[in-house]
Structure formats: structure tokens, C-alpha cells
Design brief:
Blueprint (H helix, E strand, L loop, with lengths): L3 E9 L6 E14 L4 E8 L4 H4 L4 E10 L6 H11 L5
């Protein structure tokens, strides 16, 4: 993988100030042009930084023909999560 977008979900406790990583996903470019690209997505198994650092893939998928120049990165994140079955 060349470049990768790492999406982390963290809980920042208002009580203790502790930060706990709850989930992680990787989104990576598979090719395309300056305006449209295909991306691979992998969600990582685990509910703690220690478990997530093991890098075991939970789900994987592909986002095709994403208009990256026209849309904010959050659109890509939403498509990536939907592709692997989250949000349904």
C-alpha cells in the first residue's frame, strides 16, 4: 500500500481524560485519475489499540469510480463503510 487514509474512532472520556481507540479502518487508492479513483477498504478487528495494532482484517471491499475531486473525504469514508456492510 502506498498512501493510506486511516480512520480511527476514539472515545475521549470527560471523566478520566483517557483516550480509548474503539475502531480503525484503512482506505487506500487502487488507481484512477486526478478526478476519479477506485479505493480499497479494510476494517481492522478489535476494540482496543492493542488489538487493532495486530492488523487482522475484519471486512474488506472496494469503492469504485469515486469522484475524489468533487466530494469531501467524508463521502469516501461513508461509501467505504457502506461497502463493507456498516450503516445498513
Amino acid at each position: 500500500m502506498a498512501g493510506v487514509i486511516v480512520v480511527r474512532v476514539e472515545l475521549h472520556s470527560a471523566v478520566s481524560g483517557e483516550v480509548t481507540e474503539l475502531a480503525r479502518a484503512h482506505i487506500f487508492n487502487l488507481g484512477g485519475t486526478q478526478t476519479v479513483a477506485d479505493y480499497g477498504v479494510r476494517t481492522i478487528r478489535g476494540r482496543s489499540t492493542r488489538a487493532l495494532d495486530l492488523g487482522h482484517v475484519q471486512r474488506s471491499g472496494k469503492v469504485e469510480n469515486h469522484p475524489k475531486a468533487a466530494l469531501h473525504v467524508w463521502h469516501l469514508v461513508a461509501k467505504a463503510l457502506a461497502t463493507v456492510g456498516y450503516g445498513k
